[in-house]
Amino acid sequence: MFEQAFRNIDDVLRKEAGCTTELDYTEQTSWLLFLKYLDGLEQDRADEAQLEGRKYGYILDKRYRWESWAAPKGKGGELDHNKALTGDDLRDFVDDKLFPYLQAFKQRASGPNTIEYKIGEIFGEIKNKIQSGYNLREVIDQVDELRFRSQAEKHELSHLYEAKIRNMGNAGRNGGEYYTPRPLIRAMIQVVKPQIGERIYDGACGSAGFLCEAYDYLKAAHPKRTTAQDRTLQQKTFFGKEKKSLAYVIGIMNMILHGIEAPNILHTNTLTENLADVQDKDRFDVILANPPFGGKERPEVQQNFPIRTGETAYLFLQHFARLLKAGGRAAIVIKSTFLSNTDNASVSLRKSVLGSCNLHTILDCPSGTFIGAGVKTVVLFLEKGSSTRKIWYYQLDPGRNMGKTNALNDADLAEFIALQPSQAESPKSWAVAAEAIDQSTLDLSVKNPNRDEETRHRRPEDIFAEIVALDADSAETLASIRALL
Predict the structure, then answer these.
(1) Which residue in 331, 359, 335, 329 sits closest to 199, CA to CA?
(2) pLDDT in tens, 73-107
(3) Read out DSSP for 382-420?
(4) Topology of the domain covering 163-484
(5) Domain spanning 3-147: which CATH class is it, in words?
(6) pTM for the whole thing?
(7) I need a labelling partner for 438 at 20 to 30 A (CA). Which of 20, 287, 342, 359 fits?
(8) Considering only CA atoms, which of 146, 170, 143, 175 is closest in space to residue 31?
(9) Residue of 214, 217, 222 whose CA lies nearest to 239
(10) Where exactly are the structural domains of the chain?
């Protein structure tokens, strides 16, 4: 229904000098989609108020509403070309009047969880890169064809938007920053099994893929929901934080398209929070995350953590373990080198996790799971409150080379999901008792005892991925040493 409109938008944006990558296309599409969505939301609320005999107070002043500046309509519902801005007039209005007006909402909002605050935050972080007013008019006309009113329309738009995010993820080395493969997310959720009434958190939410998939899972698991349950899902279930501006905007838009009107996503550096200040009210029942790996944090940020390290993913792992409620469950993607690194921080962190949580499952992901990342990963499944007694490993092997044209799919993970509840042994799965782990190194490496010698030979791409990961670790260590000189 809307796929052609998305293609047309990208075709126009490719003509823009200021839009050169998939990231730019998604960013520019996002702010326009948001304003179009907001227009539909306001119309729905106004219609509802009219039926109830009350007056509706619009969020936006009339001249800044979509129907006034972007798509003024004639009596027959067609675009009124006499009122519709275009060319330099349109660009100047957007840059000099619309964006400053929308940015000011952040100061006027009553709180960070309001739609007004989201408006101010979004338009304070991005700018219009479409410098041709004529190209902008073409894009607006395409966006105006999109509809958000029915669930079917929202469902299709959410799928198309997810495809744009996936293309961003495939566009470069930092793909995993924006896109975690959805089949992997769905498998993580099916193991963790969130429930309505639980609080679900991702402190490095990126494009909000985990939160959106968890929302879809809970809706499918509870098709006959009450109004109170729907309100709980909308307002009290999903919480996220994101440091980077573009990812924050995309995450907000992605959740909106999935049906959450005012997402509880904060634009902040999660790691600046001191773990010593965490109280019970700050904790969550479920944590789902793929924190950035390979990043670096300043020494003053490291001071917030018991185990100090420059490795961003290790700081996030401490953050998640602290924010998990007693009895809470987590599924966290991390570099596979975490399982075996011998530096003090890695060993200390493994000791902390094994002691404070039940690390009951480790899913070993094949090379190529994350397009363009060049890093091998595992998923840690944790329960807070008791120490680890046994770890069940599953070595995911789809039997093919992974890549853009052979991406991970749901069928690849079906056996893992089926075997995990019973933690059954198979050619790809085995268990290790906690007392069998070397207490001096706490090495948790993936070593499948059920593979015969013939199949133990590692694939070249696996070896290459480990070399890349080890090189990155070596570079980090050398940088740390250089900083001390």
Answers:
(1) 329
(2) 988 888 888 899 999 999 999 999 999 999 999 88
(3) EEETS---EEEEEE---SS--BTTB---GGGGHHHHHHT
(4) Rossmann fold (3.40.50)
(5) mainly alpha
(6) 0.85
(7) 287
(8) 143
(9) 214
(10) 3-147, 163-484
